[in-house]
Amino acid sequence: MESSSETAVPARNDDRVLVVMAKAPRPGAVKTRLTPSLPLQAVAAFYRCLLDDTLDLARSLSDVEVAIMCPAPDVEELARLVRTVDVVAQKGEGLAAGLISVFAHFAASGRQRVVAFNSDSPHLPASVLESAFETLIGHDLVVGPTHDGGYYLVGAKAAHRALFDGDGMGTKSALEALLARALELQLSVGYTDPFYDIDVEDDLARLAAELQLAPAKAPRTAAWLKQWAGTESRPGTGKL
């Protein structure tokens, strides 16, 4: 679905905004697909680690404004926890409303390249985020597919509300629906590398193995997973 009709031109590095889609790390409100196998408090602590490491990843990019988009009730708590980036309240409920709000708020403010990024991929190489911004030089839309049929990031240079009506990042049909709507809107689409995000317990084991080899990628998450893996391996101790 890539288009060669647009000619890539040099872009300024001060027009890039990376918006992390986040929630306040409250028990029972985050990473709910992990709760059948982990206590609510442990899941909330894990999500806090993911979020903090994801924000460190975002801030590692040069010449990129970093912000958080979150549900309105979470703004105060997130602003207190994360003092170094702007926290913006989305209009409406759900992730689709959050994505619509990202581009309505930031693209409408004159920014030329805006990327919305999930809050649970701190292990993603920074080069992938850089490539998302570069892809937007020559495309209307950039998408980072996940292996389960969703997407971990989406970027655009303008607000296209119809792209996200009824969709969110991470559902099995989200990517297919997004691309179908991009086709209807005649938007050219570029892609970053496929990746995995953290939804179920098997994802924890995969991430733990990756961060065991390179804990500096996401040090808080690596420390939490090391404790989780140690608990898992001790007979009779149960899970965190």
What are the salient characteristics of this protein?
240 residues, disordered N terminus, Spore Coat Polysaccharide Biosynthesis Protein SpsA, Chain A, alpha/beta, 7 strands, seven-stranded mixed sheet
What is this structure's SSE topology?
Blueprint: E1 16-21, H1 40-59, E2 65-70, H2 75-81, E3 86-89, H3 95-106, E4 113-118, H4 126-138, E5 141-145, E6 151-156, H5 174-184, E7 189-191, H6 201-213, H7 219-233
Parallel strand pairs: 1-2, 1-4, 2-3, 5-7
Antiparallel strand pairs: 4-6, 5-6
Concise description?
The protein is of the alpha/beta class and 240 residues long.
- Secondary structure category: alpha/beta
Tally of extended strands?
Answer: 7
Beginning-to-end CA distance, first to last residue: 44 Å
List the secondary-structure elements in sequence, H or E: EHEHEHEHEEHEHH
CATH architectural group? Alpha-Beta Complex
Largest sheet: 7 strands, mixed
Q: What share of residues is helical?
A: 25-40%
The dominant shape is globular
The tally of domains stands at 1
Return the CATH class.
Answer: Alpha Beta
The radius of gyration over CA amounts to: 18 Å
Q: Give the number of helices.
A: 7
Question: Oligomeric status of the shown chains?
Answer: single chain
How much of the polypeptide forms β-strand, as a percent range? 15-25%
**Strand neighbour order, sheet with most strands:** 3-2-1-4-6-5-7
CATH fold category name: Spore Coat Polysaccharide Biosynthesis Protein SpsA, Chain A
Mean pLDDT: 88
Q: What's the CATH H-level homologous superfamily?
A: Spore Coat Polysaccharide Biosynthesis Protein SpsA, Chain A
Poorly predicted runs: 1-12, 233-240
